[in-house]
Amino acid sequence: MPTSVQKTIPVQAIWKDGIFQSGRTFSKTFHFEDVNYQIQDNEGKKQLFLSYSSLLNGFESDDVFQITIYNHKRNTAELREKVLFPQQDDGLDPYRDEFNQMLLDHANEGNGIVQDRYLTITSSQEEMGIVRNQFSRMGIDLQQRLSELGSSCTPLNCRERLQMLHDFYRPGEETIYHFDFQETKRLGHDFRDYICPDSMEKNLDYLKIGKKFCRVLFIKDYASNISDKMIRELTDFDRDMMLTLTVIPMSTEKAHQLAEFKLMGAESNISNWQQKQNHRNNFSATVPFQKEQEREECREFLNDLENRDQRVFFVTLTLLHLADSLEQLDQDTDNFRAVARKRVCQLSPLTFQQLDGLNTTLPFGVNQIAANRTMTTEVLSAFMPFNVQEIHHEKGHYFGQNVISNNMIFVNEFQLQNANSFILGLSGAGKSMFAKEYMTQLRLGTDADIIIIDPEREYLPLIEQFGGEIIRVSSTSDNHINALEVRQGHDENIEKAVQRKQEFVLSLCEEIIGTGRIDAKAKSMIDRCTGKLYFQYVKNKMQGSAPTLKDLYEELKRQPEDIGKELALELELYATGSMNTFAKQTNVDIQNRLICYDILELGSDLMTVGMLVVLDNILNRINRNREDGKKTYIFIDEIYLLFLHEYSSTFLYKLWKRVRKYGGCCIGMTQNVSDILDSNTASAMISNSEFLVMLNQSPTDSQLLAQLLHIPEPQLQYITNVKAGHGLLKVGPSLVPFANEFPKDTELYKMMTTKQDEVYAQKQQRKAVK
């Protein structure tokens, strides 16, 4: 009998890598991700069922393991600390209040339950080196088998494993957990002091842990035909609870012996019954149905082992749930038992074994109750632990609610293999609204730089309200960007910066004159002239005005060779002619953290040169931010326009592959997927983007996406004929249906909307106020 609450925890020793010792066994816990099982069609469910059966069959006879589903309420204080935007007193706090209120409203719409899944494996080896190697091997094997299901697993270290136990024992105190392995070891403290509850009271069929009431149920009997919905129905309750399957695989040899023994017993029972009937001269008696059924079941059991790749497991299913009062605990127990009865199963409370049941249910890797049930692989697989995928990344951005679970979706792009993304959808599907909400979160909650390429002038109200810089790029605009201006990085020497700029000027001249028309002599001439211009500029310590295209034009004219004058004539239109907007000194704030390049009036003749200059400015900003350790987000609306030009298409492809290394994230937006999938470059960029937002699609485009991204047919319903703001998110390998509707009674919505009637109504309202 334990003499303190610390001693109720059946762990004697811990290691920093998360290995726990309980008695003579060692255990390690892995956190594994959910998969979209419930939204699959019958064929999809069948494939997942078979893959899960294969995973179970992969455990050896001495690989005792536990599968645990842990439901716990989201801590409100933690939500406020990690999700809501703090006030910054920069004039934008009213917008932060609006966004925070929207997040809190959505949090209350869901059940507030976070569901985690754990798999705990145990080892009976005595040497720690062997134990650690065994767990390492099993972890690699487990990761491979889970990846076939579309899931993944992460081993928990000591601190993470203790924190999970702390959060269970001390609900409501999640944010005050503190444990330092080295410090605890140095001081000789008991690690259990950091996680144990304040008190534990044992009763006949329940426990009182701190201020919470707890009861452990176990499966007493189950039907021969188990529904794969049972686990989901039990874990769908809005309660703090934990359900655990403790599984002991049986060796194939012993399983055959057991099956043969059972069959021999059934045959013997029938033979004895027939002898008794013969002794009574009842030679025509029919074998009773119950005995005949027992024999058939034993034969089927043996056939499963021999011909259907089935294995045998000893399984203990336990379910513990917490409540604030004994009355609520009793009511919840009745509800859980009613769900089990509906599935022809029987759940019963443990009597005088509640503490043993608690330790069996928690992921310690121990089994302290004698409630084993014999199951084949097929029966055990029916206790399907998968439901729907949830995305809740640490420090993620809000992207709507999961349509199935109604839980909020938070995505941190930089936790994925690459942070690039695409927002795809028909006109009116909510692309720009989604992008503006994304930008709003970045502006209000981060210090990242935000750069927008806007071909439709959709983002101006938002940019103006957030204090951004709007740069109208056209031949008639008053905004100018000097194409030859040098932007030196903080840790970059001036010679390298100038050399990089000279390479850009050469590319610019090639685009103006025409690719293939500049030979080696022309390149040398351009390099000589730009070198002279930059030499004088560097000599003056970069004081005064930077060189311009007009200066390059004049320098080329001064050269004695004829080719210089010819090149000057080629550049004249862009240096002193009607398209000389990039030959003037920069007069806009290109260092603002929020910049919108408005290219609506950028004509086709100036498009190539204009995008070359804009993209060069963006690349300079990314390089500079990399040195500052600052993130850069680049939003490109109607990205298909850039794929029409060779240079910008090539630039985007290279940027998509390299930008993550520079702390950057590219977001492309387009309407018709078929338009950009005609480009091999664009197709490669989409298929290599880890984060995709798919809003309402045309039937043709949805089929193209299904082929490109291997989207199962049942999930296409979430991107076909759906409302604005609804669709499908692809986050890494995960596909999650979502809904993201921003509240219309907010100032943020008024800045974001592009619906013509709403924009017009706002203009009329502003006129009336004036």
Description of the molecule:
Helix 1 (42-57) runs antiparallel to helix 4 (128-148). The chain has 4 domains: 6-107 and 115-250 and 311-382, no CATH class; 252-309; 417-481 and 592-770, Rossmann fold (3-Layer(aba) Sandwich); 483-585. The mean pLDDT is 87. The protein is built from 25 helices and 24 strands. With 770 residues, it is an alpha+beta fold. The strands form 2 sheets. Strands 1, 2, 3, 4, 5, 6, 7, 8, 9, 10, 11, 12 and 13 form a 13-stranded antiparallel sheet that branches.
Keywords:
770 residues; 25 helices; eleven-stranded mixed β-sheet; 4 domains; alpha+beta; single chain
Strand-helix topology:
Blueprint (H helix, E strand, L loop, with lengths): L12 E2 L5 E3 L2 E8 L9 H16 L7 E9 L2 H7 L10 H17 L3 E11 L4 H21 L4 E3 L2 H12 L11 H7 L12 E3 L4 E3 L2 E10 L8 H6 L5 E9 L2 H28 L9 H19 L4 E12 L2 H17 L3 E4 L4 H8 L11 E4 H6 L14 E6 L5 E4 L9 E4 L6 H15 L3 E6 L5 H6 L3 E4 L21 H20 L6 H20 L9 H10 L3 H14 L18 E5 L5 H25 L3 E5 L9 H13 L5 E7 L2 H5 L2 H8 L3 E4 L4 H11 L16 E6 L2 E6 L7 H6 L3 H14 L1
Parallel strand pairs: 16-21, 16-22, 17-19, 17-20, 18-19, 20-21
Antiparallel strand pairs: 1-2, 2-3, 3-5, 3-6, 4-5, 4-10, 7-8, 8-9, 9-11, 9-12, 10-11, 11-13, 14-15, 14-24, 22-23, 23-24
